[in-house]
Amino acid sequence: MAKEKPLAVRPPALRRHVVLVGLMGAGKSAIGRRVAARIGARFRDADTEIEKAAGMRISDIFSVHGEVEFRIGERRVITRLLDGDPILLATGGGAYMDDNTRFLLKQIATTVWMRAELDVLVKRTSKRGNRPLLKNGNPREILATLIDKRYPIYAEADIVVDSRDEPHEVTVNDIIDALKARGDLA
Ligand code: S3P
């Protein structure tokens, strides 16, 4: 009897896109990658994809073209990444603040706000000096201002998960539990 052929294509692990939002240092990329590995979903990082598309580092896009151009490219790349089978996408901190991007995400994705306290964000972002928005002043003050401005908008996300100074697996589990509860896992 002929052997059954193994499936060439893995069935999607997600019923719809899952998009992580939140401030710089919330752990969107590090934790998103781990969540995707655990549930067998395809992971993409919007900032990495923007850098690939532009052939430049994010900090160079900001300094050469400015933030407005960066936001246009960011919107275009996110739209392209979400035009296909469900993926788990980590976005840059400003993506959800863009009205068009937020509108798109509300239609086609489950959004997860990774909420973190100022001290956690300051500690994590101080490890690498690659964030253009934190270069023009005191990072703690800039992050505090961004918390005031952005947290009310991030709060519109479907799921809110606290990203604390504890092992990644704790936050990973919280996200997976919340997705399960919503029926977003296939
Ligand atoms: C930004 C966050 C960054 C990156 C860019 C702008 C922001 O991504 O997209 O520097 O506006 O908050 P991370 O949140 O991944 O650091």
Overview of this structure, please?
- There is one protein chain.
- The model has no long low-confidence stretch (mean pLDDT 95).
- Strands 2-3-1-4-5 form a 5-stranded parallel β-sheet.
- The chain has one domain (17-182): P-loop containing nucleotide triphosphate hydrolases (Rossmann fold), CATH 3.40.50.300.
- It is an alpha/beta fold.
- The chain is globular.
- It has helices at residues 28-39, 46-54, 58-65, 67-81, 99-108, 118-125, 139-154, 168-182; strands at 17-21, 43-45, 88-90, 109-115, 159-162.
- The protein is built from 8 helices and 5 strands; from the N terminus they run E-H-E-H-H-H-E-H-E-H-H-E-H.
- Bound molecules: shikimate-3-phosphate.
- Shikimate-3-phosphate binds next to loops.
Topology of this protein?
Blueprint: E1 17-21, H1 28-39, E2 43-45, H2 46-54, H3 58-65, H4 67-81, E3 88-90, H5 99-108, E4 109-115, H6 118-125, H7 139-154, E5 159-162, H8 168-182
Parallel strand pairs: 1-3, 1-4, 2-3, 4-5
Summarize the structure.
It is built from eight helices and five strands; from the N terminus they run βαβαααβαβααβα. It has 186 residues and is α/β, with parallel strands linked by helices.
Q: Strand-and-helix sequence, N→C? A: EHEHHHEHEHHEH
Rounded mean pLDDT is 95
Shape: globular
Instruction: Determine the structural class based on helices, strands and strand pairing.
Output: alpha/beta
Helix content: 40-55%
Query: What percentage of the residues does DSSP assign to strands (E)?
Result: 5-15%
Q: In the residues, how many domains can be counted? A: 1
Sheet having the most strands: 5 strands, parallel
- Global Rg: 17 Å
Low-confidence stretches: none
Count of alpha/pi helices? 8
CATH fold category name: Rossmann fold
Strand order of the largest sheet: 2-3-1-4-5
CATH hierarchy class name: Alpha Beta
Distance between the termini: 32 Å
Record field, number of beta strands = 5
Bound molecules: shikimate-3-phosphate
